Amino acid sequence: MLAFLLDEHISPVVAEEARRKHPGIKIVALRDWRGGSFLGTPDSVFLAEAARERLSLVTYDQRTIRPLLKAWIEQGIAHAGVVFVDVRTIAPQDFGGLVTALGKPWKSERRADWTDRVVFLSRHSK
Question: Is 63 within a domain?
């Protein structure tokens, strides 16, 4: 089942609001996941651990995550899915827009296998 892990640059308020707006959604902020023990760790470290728990990362960070995913594909390393958000589509401070947008794939594809899946979230995501 689909579960989201918000990267450290996305406010935990987004997870709180998502749980209120979309009952049953599985979502946690990196700041709250495992007591925040992965804050400040390299992307490869927390993304590998998130994969073990089948948590799909939600991030605005295409600059470092995209090259990491490319390297992992080449090495045969799997991840639990990544949802990229673009600041021009949904501003980081637009919590409501992000909550609404995250609800769409969760409602339509929460039972799908998200292994190695990469999607780009928009206000109009399916």
Answer: yes
pLDDT in tens, 36-72: 999 999 999 999 999 999 999 999 999 999 999 999 9
Instruction: Answer whether 84's CB lies under 8 Å from 62's CB.
Output: yes
**Is the predicted pLDDT of residue 77 greater than 80, yes or no?**
yes
Q: Residue type at 106?
A: W
Boundaries of domain holding 109: 4-121
User: 126 in a domain, yes or no?
Assistant: no
Q: How far apart are CA 39 and CA 123, in angstroms?
A: 28
Q: Could you give the angle at the alpha carbon of 94 between the alpha carbons of 8 and 27, nearest 5°?
A: 45
CB 20 within 8 A of CB 14: no
Does pTM top 0.85 for this prediction? yes
Asked if residue 73 belongs to a domain, the reply is yes
Give the pLDDT band (50/70/90) at residue 22: very high
CATH number of the domain enclosing 60: 3.40.50
Interacting residues of 95 by C-beta distance below 8 A, sequence separation 6+: 11, 13, 14, 17
